[in-house]
Amino acid sequence: MASLAALVGFALLAGIVTARNGSPLPVDSTLLSWAVGHRPATAVTAIRRLTDTGTGAIPYVLAATAGVIAGRTKRQKVLAAAASLLCLGVGQLLRRAVLNLIGRARPPAGEWATHASGLSFPSGHATTAALTAALLITAVLLRSPPGRFLAVALVGCWGAAVGLTRVYLGVHWFSDVIGGWLFALAWYGACAVVAARWLPMLIAPAHKDDPYPGNDAAPRPNP
């Protein structure tokens, strides 16, 4: 249900952006102006380092890690890692297709505090970090380790913070980031449905007294 609501929200936001020919919403201009006026050098350096964690190899390493955490057996870990990487990779391809379809320009280059290229809606960093965070959070909740709630909170904050860095650095409008979050949630929901249908061993809870944990397909000896 949440993913469906996210898809509807994304479609509505994309429609608004398209109807305005990519021009910023009032909240976009307000937040960009605030960011430009609050950029001490130390903050910009720290924010640049944080924003770099939302692109390149790092999200893919984290997505694979989520799969390793989610699986119980070696085979499940490999399958879950591959599924996580596929979810992230295909999500990126779909986002690029939407990006080119909408064709929204970034904020004026004079407001940028870091390098950026390409179009603007939805934000790639926001989408990637949110999708990666969702995969990690799911893996942690499936395994339910001690301190899981703290881990979930930290991962969730990271996913949100990476998106917000793009506004602070002036390379995305806030609505680009919102669009990225909504797109990520909608796509993650679709991937979760597929995983629940085709990879039941990866999401089935372990039985406490099961002598063959994590391998429901393995034959049991006759009593």
Features:
223 residues; mainly alpha; 9 helices; globular
**Average pLDDT metric:** 89
Low-confidence stretches: 205-223
Strand percent estimate: under 5%
Number of helices: 9
Structure class: mainly alpha
In whole angstroms, the N-to-C terminal distance is 43 Å
Q: Which helices and strands, and how do they pair?
A:
Elements: H1 2-19, H2 26-36, H3 41-52, H4 57-70, H5 74-102, H6 124-143, H7 148-168, H8 174-198, H9 200-203
Helix pairs in contact: 1-8, 3-7, 4-5, 4-6, 5-6, 5-8, 6-7, 6-8, 7-8
What do these coordinates show?
Helix content is 69%, strand content 0%. It is globular. It contains nine helices and no strands. α4 (57-70) runs parallel beside α6. Mean pLDDT is 89; it is low at 205-223. It has 223 residues and is mainly α.
Q: Brief overview, please?
A:
The protein is an all-alpha fold.
